[in-house]
Amino acid sequence: MFDVLIVGLGAAGYTASIYTARYKLKTLLVGLEEGGLGITAAEVGNWPGDIEIRGPDLMEKFKKHAASFSEVTLKTARIEKIEKITGGFRAHFQSGETAEAKTVILATGSNKRHLGVPGEKEFAGKGVTYCATCDAFFYRGKTVAVVGGGDSAVEGAAIAAQVAKRVYLIHRRGDFRAEPYWVDKVKVRDNVTFVLERNVTEILGDQKVTGVKLDKPMEGQEILPVDGVFIEVGATPATELAKELGCVLDARGFLQVDAAMRTTVPGVFGAGDVTNASNHFAQFVTAAGEAGVAANSVFNHLSTGGMDGGYMSGGNGSM
């Protein structure tokens, strides 16, 4: 039996395994996609110590660090179910295999919603990105499109407008779901063009993005020439395993944790984008920070035989 099962091969999962390994805990690190959403970042300019690095390269460094510990067993596989058993938990893999662990860290992240249009997959990392606040800096002096109508989209447009030559904010409705603060902030920017009541039907390019095609012409143009497309149409926390385990989710559907990253199920912890911690600020640094806390809590939990206190006994997540 492993000391801890960590589910997720993104920034949170890799970081958690680095910490549990340093605590000399026998760790099983499992996920379906190496790097998680981190590999979708074309450029990362806010990871301390690396002024500029590609998302896939950063995730590869995380992976190599985690794999350098003999305590870590790395497995690429889909977990269909995790069940509570005497003395811990049993994970059931799609292959039919099982594995057991005394504790679990859920670092399953979130799934960015995609447009599902031609060209989106082909130009991912080549002008298509899913985080305007992360990547806008790299489009200084260029023309970009931001797709979406929520807080992340409108905030992203406001940030992109600070550096880009021109920003098209494309939304399928005539009004925004975003906070008025961000809408007002965008409206005063003379380099932002609102493209409302229109949908992107295709992303065009040649080696990299060159434009977006609309379902209805904008000022006589069906195709808008752009250098980058920020798709900000929301994300869904990957909480399927958490729900089956009986973990409580918050009103927005995120995994509810306390200050120690404990869920409402004893022995199960959370970290990263799947949780309601860090003010929902989904960044590499917050994922890594939460993961370090979760690993420390696992160590304390195992060291005290589970007598370290649970979610209900304190912390900012008490109900």
Detailed description of the structure:
- The chain has 319 residues and is α/β, with parallel strands linked by helices.
- It folds into two domains: 2-112 and 235-313, FAD/NAD(P)-binding domain (3-Layer(bba) Sandwich), CATH 3.50.50.60; 128-231, FAD/NAD(P)-binding domain (3-Layer(bba) Sandwich).
- The protein is 23% helix and 29% strand.
- Strands 1, 2, 3, 4, 5, 6 and 17 form a seven-stranded mixed beta sheet that branches. It has a five-stranded parallel beta sheet with strand order 8-15-9-10-11, with helices on one face.
- The protein is elongated and about 65 Å long.
- Mean pLDDT is 92; it is low at 313-319.
Low-confidence stretches: 313-319
Level of helix content? Answer: 10-25%
Number of contiguous helices: 7
Radius of gyration computed on alpha carbons = 21 Å
Secondary-structure element string: EHEHEEEEEEHEHEHEEEEEEHEH
- Could you say which overall geometry the principal axes of the C-alpha atoms support? elongated
Instruction: Tell me the total number of β-strands.
Output: 17
CATH superfamily of the largest domain: FAD/NAD(P)-binding domain
- The total number of structural domains is 2
Q: Overall pLDDT, averaged? A: 92
What would CATH call the architecture of the largest domain?
3-Layer(bba) Sandwich
Largest sheet: 7 strands, mixed
Termini separation: 32 Å
Secondary structure category: alpha/beta
Beta content comes to 25-35%
Query: What name does the CATH topology of the largest domain carry?
Result: FAD/NAD(P)-binding domain
